[in-house]
Amino acid sequence: MNLLNFLIIDDDVVDRVHYRRIISQTQQFSAKITEVDSAEQALTLCPQEKFDCIILDYHLPGMNGIEFVRELKKIGNNNVSLIMLTGQGNENIAVNAMKEGITDYVIKNDLDPDYFVDTIIKSMQKKLQENKLQEQEEQLKHFAYFDNLTGFMNRYAFEEAALRTLSEAKRFHNVIGFLYIDLDHFKNVNDIFGHAVGDALLEEVANRLRKILREEDLKARIGGDEFIILLTRLKTIDDAAIVANKIVEQIALPFQIASHVIFVGASVGIAGYPESGGSLVELLKNADVALYRAKDLGRGVFTFFSEDLRLVHEKRLNFEQALHRAIANEEFFLVYQPQFELATRKIIGMEALLRWHHPELGLVSPDQFIPIAEESGLIIPIGRWVLETACKQFKKWSQEISMMLQLNIAINLSPKELSNPLFLVSIQKLLIEIDLPPERVSLEITESALVQNIQNEGILTKLRAIRLQLSIDDFGKGSSSLSRLKKLPINSLKIDASFVEGLEAEKADVAIVKYIINIGKELDLTVVAEGIETETQLKFLIEHGCVAGQGFYFSYPLTEKEMTEFLINYVPSI
Ligand code: C2E
Ligand code: MG
Ligand code: MG
Question: Is the peptide bond before 274 cis (omega within 30 degrees of 0)?
Fold first, then answer.
């Protein structure tokens, strides 16, 4: 054993010397010994020096051994082994003392040195074990309450602490603010740099938050990249905006993780007590609603909760729920808008357009529900349904109406579908299954979707390789550079309807449409005009060399039944 540090407390000098002698003469350990003759002296010494073992007499002047132990605990000295000496017949006292925290006791009459040393060693071992257990318990408690990575609380601990803060706020009329923080594009960090870098980034985010926040603010990490902060004691809830703003600003600064410089950002939702709710559940929910709005606003911003937001959010959730059930309830159907060769007015194909018949709201436009389907991930099963339904219907028409052999079908894709790793295989399988040549199918991807997600270019090449046609939809509204366009494996450009609409009045639109037609010619792409509504528009387009188009001028989008009739009765006008 190492050198052990002993404190002997006894007002009887003879006894003290006796104990000192036994302790210093044993071969079992070497000892450094301090002696005092009162509990008070011991209590002033204990905070300054770390003792391994205290030997004390039960009867001390002014204070007995049990009282001493209680005082010792108060000053936070719990790890020391305590051996009490009591007179014969006082075993009762000794047992009580052990309940209070004495490690062991010895009867001091006829004290046997070996027995005394033995007791000291055993009590030290016992204490050591107790300390270890206590440490483990504390660690377990720490794991149960704290996030290992950031040292912030976990959700469980946060809720417990926040409940206390909230009830205090109610009692003392404090203003407190809940900030729900979500990192923007954190998933990309994990995907691109790996989880170790992702973890290091989260630690750094926590460090920046710590610097902005006060010690007494509650900080928790409650999910991968989600944090909740409870700002305690605000003057007004507007102070929360100052903190939220700092957070947004600080997290937007680049992070240096290992050799990488990484940009993320944070969106923050704020709900304050008392304005935004009275219960913890309500306040957390409302901070989340505000966060949702902040992300909708384009991320990197903070938003306060408001009752209007709640209504919008609720409506949106209901909408999403309904969208969830729509496939199973067969509420979707497709309409088909014929496409024509402009100069000859001959039908060359059709575009499948999705419709949703909502049980209460009636017909809902795709512009309303596609963005929500994309965000919730529902676009994957919905897109799959569209693809399958459109291709099968098209195949049916091809078989039943021979003229169809010349036609193509255009199907709209959302960027999420395109990034789905299963997409390529599943479309390939579908086309083989229904025996539809891929060159008859044109996939439409909006220009803005392409700009947003450069990774999608790889999949485009693969889709082209299996001879599918690719078309850029709403061209002119995104911001593709020409050099990029040149490299894309596409077949056609669709002029956005808004430019066609302006052809009769807007000079700028005239210029844009001419420009797009020219790009198409240069890059050897078919240019298709959308939204042709008038003879004048049609004439202009033909004059400037636009090959194909669609629009109300020719035909509205048709239901399956209407399209069947249209095809059966179709007579080319030239
Ligand atoms: P889009 O692909 O550009 O489709 C053309 C839109 O213009 C359609 O609106 C069509 O009904 C409308 N339209 C056709 N002719 C005219 C016209 O002469 N004038 C005017 N003003 N509009 C005309 P719709 O059906 O409401 O679809 C809106 C958008 O929703 C589509 O734009 C497309 O981006 C998206 N969408 C539709 N169906 C699907 C789908 O199955 N999957 C995906 N991912 N998106 C779809
Ligand atoms: Mg389209
Ligand atoms: Mg379009």
Answer: yes
